[in-house]
Amino acid sequence: MAALCESFTLCGLGPGGVGLGGGILALEPGPDPDHVLLTDRGRTATLFKVSDQKPLGCWSVKHGQVITCPVVCNFETHEYIAVHDDKVLRIWNNKDINLDKVFKATLSADVYRIHSLPNGGPLVLFRGGGVRTLDVLLEAPQQDIENVISDEVIKWSEAFMEGQQPVLIFATEKDGDFFVYVQKLKMNNLHKYKLEQQKLSKPLTFTAYIKNQIITLLCLYSNASVYKVLIPLQQNNEEEEQILSQSLLLNLSVSGSVLKGTSLVVLDKDYVAVLGSLTASGEEPKECLTIWNTKFQTLQTSKELPLGTSGQLWCYEEKFFFTHGKVLTAIMYKCEIASLAAAVGKLKDSQTSDVSSFVNWDTLEDEELVVSFQSQQSVALKSESRMTLRSKKNTVAEVQPDTLSAQPDTLSVGQLLLNLKDAPTTAFEDELRQLMSKGRTPDFHATIGCVVTALINRCKTNPKYYPQNLLLQIVQTQDLSYSLCPDLMAVALEKEDMHLLQTCLQRFPDIPEEITYACLKMFLSISEACLQRVDVNLESVICYIDIEFNNKEVKTEIVENGFRTEQEQDIWDTKVSKETCLTNNVELCPVGPQKAALLNAVLHSAYSEAFLLPHLKNLPAQQAVLFLRYLYYLYVKCSEKINTALPGISPPTINQIMDWMCLLLDAHFTVMVMLPEAKELLSNLHKFVRAQVRFYSELNKIEGSLQELQRLNHQKDSQTYSIEVLEII
């Protein structure tokens, strides 16, 4: 049994993200199982921590240079290896920042690919078919590289470890004929094979694995078929070229639809994953990620990708990675021992939840809904399932709320959400509340994600429907993340739901920088008058904010013991008038409490400077000045306290304020210098920072004296009361 589980966004693509211009070149494993190395079709390589969906490092070659093969990690030294402009080799580690200053070697031939093996070191494959280990290559970078192939073009390559011996396999093409080369490096043994041709079709991509001295090569053909080729490593035949016969492994067709695959990945001996376009007569092609059981020739599960993909698919640590629209998406999967019961969807598994993928009612047709919710359904049962689904769909509108309430005990989550698709609003929400009230299970968070997705999809199909209170309740009471419900904040932005956005920013640890910027821009653009009517959590600002209404400063008046005498009243009035005159020179909070609370939520949101900065540069100048004024106000407020901490519940920290000020100035400094209304603000900020630097410099001068006094006080243990006067000269 195989199933697709929860998905999440690893990073954005295009402006502000990776893959500028030409998309992704490749994704390779990093030095840690939770790390991946992403190389774009340009100048940049980025190291990501998958569980946090955040970049750990980013390196670029100079303008005019192009990385021409995927960057890989040397697992033995934890260094990174890149080739730019075909022949220039670069090696660096995590501490290096500028690639111009790292190790460089110019090679004598063009490099096709570098393969890094955990226990065998990096192998360098040249475009002419020559292979060298990295150590041998670095001994003499300009050594001659033999040309193994003549007029052939390498289409694919892979490397394995068989025992203690590295093995490299690559496929080439010439005039429509395809050849396979197997190189055993330690024995300097190279074998060449010719692939048996298939009528009216050609191989699109390859994948392979090795077991018991036999390489199993899988070929994805243009006729929507997967063929298998067995290549034994032990070859006694010295014949120069052998013909490799192929056997049909899998037909990628189901119920009249054909999957035109673009990428193929082996999951284990019984399962393969195919990314491609599902086509049926008279219908638009739909891009899908699918898992197939090769043992029983069945489709196990699929997920439609309506935003489109680049056709590339990678698989590491039980996660798929692929582009989906303008983001790089990761989706987890699970594979269990293949059995006939699992292949036809009849395996009883009390430990496994039915939540295998999220429901998108806007894009999935009836057949795909069955595949999404019943990932074990076989090809043979497709028509029966389709009839059952239609009968349910036709009768769901007639189901009464009391009937629906009895369903969760007998139906899986996927089936329940499908049956509720056309249910009345009250019954729909009651059932979702009942579903969430169940005890926590291993897939509880995925279930909550499905519930939120169901609510969001109903909002999309019915613009008048928006369950604000229910969504807010779910976000406030459940440990959700952005990746579990990626459309939630997009809908909240569309509906201008400030309270829900504030709560998401405070609770979600993995919000993309693009969404954080969209929230910031909305918060800054909305008028104070509109915010007066909005319910916003003010806990983070109520204890420190100074505001002014109708040009009159609002101050809190403290009455001692509940009354004052006339004399005390006169003294109080005098003090208030003096303090008001003094504070007239101090800038009040430039925004109201509601907007301040919303901006504080943005300050709390996690971000990567490299990905947020390009978005901040698009912030209108007037909004940037307003945001900087508020940050300056917070900075001054923090500096008034000895511990530089604002009072209240979860206020911004001094580090968050400083980081955002630096980021905003980096993005808009040139514009702000030219704006007349920003001149005074920048001047005040400069003077305040300069005064603080001087103050701390003076403290540093007497630091030694203060430490000496502290040491002297520790030495004395006076038992009697005394007054001592110490002079610091």
Q: How is the secondary structure organized here?
A:
Elements: E1 2-12, E2 24-29, E3 35-40, E4 44-49, E5 54-60, E6 67-74, E7 79-84, E8 88-92, E9 103-106, E10 111-117, E11 121-126, E12 131-133, H1 134-139, E13 153-162, E14 165-174, E15 177-184, E16 189-195, E17 203-211, E18 214-221, E19 225-232, E20 241-244, E21 247-251, E22 253-254, E23 257-266, E24 271-279, E25 286-293, E26 298-304, E27 314-316, E28 319-324, E29 327-335, H2 340-343, H3 366-373, H4 382-395, H5 401-404, H6 413-419, H7 425-436, H8 444-461, H9 468-477, H10 488-495, H11 498-507, H12 513-525, H13 528-532, E30 548-549, E31 552-553, H14 566-583, H15 593-604, H16 609-616, H17 621-639, H18 654-674, H19 676-701, H20 703-715
What can you see in these coordinates?
It is a single chain. The protein is of the alpha+beta class. 32% of the residues lie in helices and 28% in strands. The protein has 20 helices and 31 strands. The strands form 8 sheets. It has a 5-stranded mixed beta sheet, with no helix packed on it. Helix 9 (468-477) runs parallel beside helix 11 (498-507) and helix 12 (513-525) runs parallel beside helix 16. The longest helix has 26 residues, at 676-701. The chain is globular and about 100 Å long. Residues 1-334 form the Nucleolar protein 11 N-terminal domain. Keywords: Activator, Nucleus, rRNA processing, Transcription, Transcription regulation. It is found in: Nucleus, Nucleolus. Residues 417-727 form the Nucleolar protein 11 C-terminal domain. Pfam families: Nol11_C (PF20998), NOL11_N (PF08168).
